[in-house]
């Protein structure tokens, strides 16, 4: 990845200028047809807010969502332990926090119940410990945050924990301005990053940002890096400062009972959109019909999973606006000539293995060099050992070989009625039977883990593994420091939400971009103009000379 500071920034500002100039044009009062491609957090939020804003502004919208899968939620999804629908387990995005206003409001508005995370069972001491491959560097029982234990922290790290907490508050405060006028809505995320003073944070690594703010190296490595590894599969040296702060802002983490995707399902339902499931958009082109106004209309071609025809079908409706709500490089959409005015940069994504399984056994203390017969922690996050060189990509995991092992909860095995534990492992490579054998201190035969997920419990066995569900994702971008971001406007009436993932990749930020794009569409349709954030005139005025971007960029060959 290259940092093309000047040109990309200027391009970003140019989009902002160009599109705000055209917004004064008066649109005819007919129905606006809007297509949304993808029903993850971004697409669902775009649909929901589009309906709300359009109703408030008296704009008529007809929303159509195209979704490749049979589900709503995208990377927010559950799978059923033992194929039992009453036992859903989060496979993708699993936590959010109260300052995630869109998600949190969603749970209230849709009457969804919230469960706390990081707790196995009330009766059980839930210990989280940080393992560096040699020893535990930190251990805590459940407090207000997984790592918070005031006495221990003060003794070991002095003022650093307090400084870190204050730093998180300050950064979150700046970020939250994006929800409010005049920062909301935004046509350029790059411009807002400068205007909110966040570029000093996205432009440096977590390691640099923490050092600049006098956070002790040990505290950073032991505690904060454990958080960046479990949340973004990355060491501090390869993750920008903003994503580092987000990783650490998980106090009071919560999730929706039954699955976080329920928020997005409700958003889609409330939007009144027509939803085409099992429908992959394969192309976007300009519609052939000539419109009287200068605004183009778009033609969408789709391929249906299960349909016998291999030829893509052209959707009859011509769309005034199209929102692409999925990472472009994985969407396999062909764009007609001239459709994408602002090139979408391909970015490396982190390939992450998520392995869910259940077992009647607990983690073996001896794996962690604890005395035989003692109890191993139920959640083990990892970090690098002192002197271990941080690396990028798959190798970055270091000698521990995994980012985290969590005991999610206890459950009854429907076949035996025995109490079991449900585990989740995050790792850069597939989990092997050898690793599991060591982790549980008992032979795990190949057959237990060879099931392909769905039929994982057809392996004939119960002990030591009774249900097994391996999966991998392109989970989130490799969050290297950067000072420009893919902006949400690709062309006239053409929007893109996934650029925000290089800034912060969470359900909430995707939902925020969906809400932002919805606001822009309705503003333009209703001729609403907004107060501008004081303009940034030239690069010299941006304070860029104060941003030290020291990038160690290796080609992401192993991804
Ligand atoms: C393992 C894991 C753990 C995570 N943990 C957290 C967490 O704890 N908290 C948090 O907030 N975030 C977490 N995240 C990040 C979070 O999941 C994402 O940032 C967020 O869900 C992205 O939403 P999105 O709508 O932008 O994209 P997606 O969820 O990827 O949605 C895109 C949708 O578009 C569809 N689609 C793609 N191409 C086409 C096409 N051509 N035609 C039609 N449809 C198409 C896809 O099927 C998908 O439904 C995690 C992610 C992973 C993978
Ligand atoms: C609304 O969109 C659907 C496609 O999802 C289309 O069939 C319908 O004709 C549209 N309605 C109007 C009024 O344009
Ligand atoms: C989508 O496809 C799956 C698998 O082929 C099928 O079970 C499901 O019924 C389909 N859903 C819709 C809404 O067509
Ligand atoms: C969330 O709800 C509160 C209270 O109703 C409201 O003031 C706020 O604007 C909402 N925020 C978002 C992002 O929906
Ligand atoms: C909200 O959910 C609770 C518990 O699930 C239920 O008792 C209540 O009736 C619901 N309220 C509304 C307004 O749907
Ligand atoms: C499990 O318990 C249920 C209810 O107590 C009972 O009906 C069932 O037969 C039991 N199953 C097994 C395998 O013991």
From TrEMBL:
| Organism lineage string | Eukaryota, Fungi, Dikarya, Ascomycota, Pezizomycotina
Q: Which InterPro entries match?
A: FAD/NAD-bd_sf, Prenylcys_lyase, Prenylcysteine_Oxase1
Prenylcysteine lyase domain ranges (all copies): 145-524
Keywords associated with the record: FAD, Flavoprotein, Glycoprotein, Oxidoreductase, Signal
Q: Which GO terms describe its molecular function?
A: prenylcysteine oxidase activity
Full protein name = Prenylcysteine lyase domain-containing protein
Q: Name one GO biological process term.
A: prenylcysteine catabolic process
Task: Give the residue range of the signal peptide.
Answer: 1-21
User: Can you tell which superkingdom this protein's organism belongs to?
Assistant: Eukaryota
Q: What's the cofactor?
A: FAD
**Family per record:** Belongs to the prenylcysteine oxidase family.
- Please report a single Pfam family linked to this protein: NAD_binding_8
């Amino acid at each position: 990845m290259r940092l093309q500071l000047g040109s990309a920034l200027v391009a970003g500002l140019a989009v902002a200028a160009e599109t705000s100039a055209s917004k004064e044009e008066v649109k005819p009062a007919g129905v606006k047809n809007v297509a949304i491609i993808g029903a993850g957090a971004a697409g669902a939020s775009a649909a929901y807010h589009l309906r709300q804003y359009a109703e408030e502004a008296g704009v008529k919208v007809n929303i159509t969502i195209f979704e490749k899968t049979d589900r709503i939620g995208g990377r927010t999804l559950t799978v059923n332990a033992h194929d039992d629908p009453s036992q859903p387990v989060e496979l993708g995005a699993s936590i959010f926090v109260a300052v995630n206003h869109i998600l949190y409001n969603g749970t209230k508005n849709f009457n969804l119940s919230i469960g706390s995370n990081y707790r196995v069972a009330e009766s059980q001491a839930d210990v989280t410990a940080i393992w560096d491959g040699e020893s535990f560097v930190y251990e805590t029982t459940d407090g207000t945050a997984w790592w918070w234990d005031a006495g221990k922290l003060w003794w070991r790290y002095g003022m650093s924990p307090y400084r870190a907490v204050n730093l998180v508050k300050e950064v979150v405060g700046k970020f939250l301005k994006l929800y409010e006028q005049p920062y909301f809505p935004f046509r350029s995320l790059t411009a807002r990053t400068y205007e909110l003073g966040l570029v000093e944070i996205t432009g440096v690594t977590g390691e640099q940002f923490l050092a600049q703010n006098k956070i002790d190296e040990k505290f950073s490595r032991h505690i904060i890096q454990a958080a960046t590894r479990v949340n973004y599969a990355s060491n501090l040296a390869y993750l920008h400062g903003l994503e580092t702060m987000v990783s650490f802002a998980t106090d009071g983490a919560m999730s929706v009972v039954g699955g976080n995707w329920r928020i997005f399902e409700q958003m889609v339902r409330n939007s009144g959109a027509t939803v085409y499931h099992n429908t992959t958009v394969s192309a976007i082109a300009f519609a052939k019909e000539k419109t009287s106004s200068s605004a183009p209309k778009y033609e969408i071609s789709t391929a249906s999973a299960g349909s016998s025809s291999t030829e893509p079908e052209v959707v009859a409706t011509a769309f005034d606006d199209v929102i692409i709500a999925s990472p472009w490089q994985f969407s396999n959409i062909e764009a007609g000539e001239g459709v994408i005015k602002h090139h979408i940069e391909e970015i490396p994504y982190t390939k992450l293995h998520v392995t869910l399984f259940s077992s009647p056994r607990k983690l073996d203390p001896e794996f962690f060099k604890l005395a035989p017969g003692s109890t191993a922690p139920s959640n083990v996050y990892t970090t690098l050992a002192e002197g271990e060189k941080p690396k990028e990509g798959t190798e970055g995991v270091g000698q521990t070989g995994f980012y985290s092992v969590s005991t999610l909860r206890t459950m009854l095995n429907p076949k035996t009625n025995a109490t079991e534990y449900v585990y989740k492992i995050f790792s850069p490579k597939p989990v092997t039977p050898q690793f599991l054998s060591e982790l549980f201190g008992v032979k795990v035969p190949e057959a237990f883990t060879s099931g392909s997920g769905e039929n994982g419990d057809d392996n004939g066995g119960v002990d030591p593994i009774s249900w097994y569900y391996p999966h991998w994702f392109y989970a989130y971008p490799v969050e290297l420091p950067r000072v420009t971001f893919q902006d949400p406007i690709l062309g006239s009436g053409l929007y893109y939400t996934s650029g925000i993932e290089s800034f912060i990749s969470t359900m909430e930020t995707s939902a925020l971009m969906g809400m932002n794009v919805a606001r822009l569409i309705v503003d333009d349709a209703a001729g609403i103009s907004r107060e501008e954030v004081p303009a940034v005139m030239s690069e010299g005025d941006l304070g860029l000379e104060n941003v030290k971007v020291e990038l160690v960029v290796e080609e992401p060959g192993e991804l």
